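*** Protein under study ***
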Amino acid sequence: MASVPAGCRCARELPRDRAALEAQGNQSMSPALVSYAATLVVYLGINSIGCWGLNLQFGVGGVMNFAFILFQAMGAYITAVLTLPRATTASAETYILGWHLPWPLPLLGAAVAGAVLALAIGAFALRPQRRDFQATVMLVVSIIAATLVVTEQGWFNGAQGLFGIPQPFVASLNLTISGYQWAFAGITALIALLVLFFSDRLTGSPWGRRLRAMRENSEAVESLGTSVRAESLKVYVIGGAIAAVSGGLLVEFIGAWSPAAWGTGETFIIFVAIIVGGLGNTFGAFFGAFLVLGVFLELPTYLPQIGSANTEESLQSAAIGVLILVFLWWRPQGIFPERRRQLSRLVPSARRESGDRVSPSRQPGPSAGEAGRAEGVSRPAGDGRGPGAPGVVPRESGAGGRPPGPAQFHWRPPARPGGAGGAATLSVRDLSRDFGGVQAVDGLSFDLAPGQVTGLIGPNGAGKSTALKLIAGAVRPAAGRVVVDGVDVAGWPAHKVARLGVIRTFQHTSEFARLTVLENLLTAAPGQPGDSLGGALLGRRHSRSRERELLDEAWSLLADFQLTAAADSYAGKLSGGQRRLVEIMRALMARPRVLLLDEPMAGVNPTLRLTIEEHLQRLRDDGLTMLMVEHELGSVERVCDSVIVMAQGKVLATGTMAELRQNQEVVSAYLVG
């Protein structure tokens, strides 16, 4: 927000050298310094509010808003026109409303205007999930808006802007200039604290955790049932409203609005501030506002006048450039990195020390398959993806009669829509998709046997991974049907398919790198009270009970997969095999009814491969329907009940691995050697 320090010209009215200060004497120096100190406090508060808004959008939500300064300018303008009376010296009576609204109504109007503008821009810019497209659109919009505002006379009074804007409290409180400045400093500090509280509540909630997951890997979040576009739009609107408030405060303080002060380059200075302070860290954004906008942009004003009149501005730009280069090279995480959330501390100590203990809310029970065979009934009806439908339940006896192990669990299938339980059914009919004339999938048809593991094998380029993407909604098919429990989901977006219980893993590990392992698992769990904007605003008490239940469930998974030691480690720091395990556990936390596995053994050492096979066999015994793309044929033979062979986008053959080894067509196309 270089426009704020640029408007802080009161500093330049102070003598620049000690001799001049001594010449003026203490009587004249003290009021000037007091006034200057109050002004700096105001600007620090305004800058901090702006940095918190962008930090929420970009540092937490991953939305690269290159039009951020536009929202500050909008807030400043709306505040001005709502404050100015009809009889004004602004020479712009044609568009002044003349309402002369009392404080804080103009500031509230600015927040609403910023939110509406963000909604309008975000509805278009955030439609594709390509961040390069989003950033480019916002930058272009900002440049166009800055050009139009400077040239438009009818609405904005052109480059002259607005002046003579009444400052709040001056007339009613009969304050001196210094008294008014300190009063406004107190108001700014109060509003800054409110914004800080609001931002901290959002970022510390399950909804904030999901935003950070979106920042790390939006495709993976979409595959877990979250509409990335909708959540990005929410955080974009909130950040736009916060930015507008910071702009409105500036106009109220200086009593003028100049369109030239809101240049596109100011956005990049705010980016520098939050990067230097620490992306995603609320205190880091405050420190970045102080260091970059308060120190680096103020220091050049105390240097002796040298060269042309533009020397000071050039020195400011050079200082900012050197600063960002140093930090990107030396400390890209910023001075205050995003705080690691050690959620394992919330797990009871007895639970942490003994992974095989069963919590009171998770009593042992038979697997889905065992229950169905013994009783002929399904699990209680209900929304299988809601809070009351656990997806993994600790048990004391292993699957298949194995001796008890630490925290072994069995999977219970969520209920189907309408209340019916049991394993899911999935059918693919005539599914097709081409890319640039290359037919990746061509009339693919098959059925998944409920409660079994079906393998999908074939040579590279056969279309296996594309088929999984088509089923999961990550890619839109050109033709065909994908039927899940009687519902045709072909062409549905990925988050809607996931909400039906079709969950996928990825060919290349897609963990949330800067979230801990426990956070990765909790992000996938649906039905969390604090996992929405409204729930986040209600605070942690609203979601604490459910959070502890999910932590207990996630800890059971970690104990069973022998990853409790890495619970509070960043997922991106784990080995490739461990990241595979995290991805599988995350998928299980999402309450799958059909699990699509894309090469789960890729890049995994033989020992860990056997561990993954054991877990998949246990999930199969529990009745989970799975489709597994895999090149490790030994794993396919040990895990899969039946196998589909694809070649050139079509089904070549189906059967068991033993049967396929006798099929000459399959041997020639894939099994040779």
Summary: The chain has three domains: 33-262, 426-511+577-672, 513-573.
